[in-house]
Amino acid sequence: MRPVKCIISEGGGQYSTEETHFTNHEKREGWRLSCQVAVKDNMKVQVPDEVFGAKKWECEVISNENVATFIKELVLKLPKEKK
User: Fold this and answer.
1) How many CB atoms are closer than 10 A to CB 12?
2) For residues 6 and 31, is the Cβ–Cβ distance under 8 A?
3) Element (H or E) spanning 29, and its range?
4) Residue 52, CB half-sphere, CA atoms under 13 Å: how many?
5) E strands of 18-59, at which residues?
6) Distances from the Cα of 7 to the Cαs of 30, 37, 46, 56, 73, in angstroms?
7) Which of 20, 45, 48, 62 is the most buried (most CB within 10 A)?
8) pLDDT tens, 31-61?
């Protein structure tokens, strides 16, 4: 899964861990990694259209293991018609 990039035109604070993922041009346009932006006040966010094409599937959980601090490995089995 790739990270969701969005444009934050108001709020969002300073770049930190995500800075290396963007060119200077993208930074000037306000591109950020949505998973790395701390919401501390009102923000104006523009989300790419492809994000809204997500599908919802009911899956069987095969395993849900802690592999490291703050990291889980979640293994799911897709329904046959979704493979």
Assistant:
1) 21
2) yes
3) helix 24-29
4) 4
5) 31-33, 44-46
6) 5, 11, 5, 25, 29
7) 45
8) 999 888 888 888 999 988 887 777 788 899 9
Looking at the structure of the chain, the number of domains it has is 1
Burial of residue 32, with CB atoms counted within 10 A of its CB: 0-12 exposed, 13-18 middle, 19 or more buried: buried
Q: Which residue has the tokens 């800075």?
A: 19
Q: What pLDDT digit, counting tens, does each position of 61-83 carry?
A: 999 999 988 889 999 998 887 55
User: What is the distance between the alpha carbons of residues 31 and 40, in angstroms, rounded to a whole number?
Assistant: 18
Helix (DSSP H) and strand (DSSP E) numbers for the chain = 1, 5
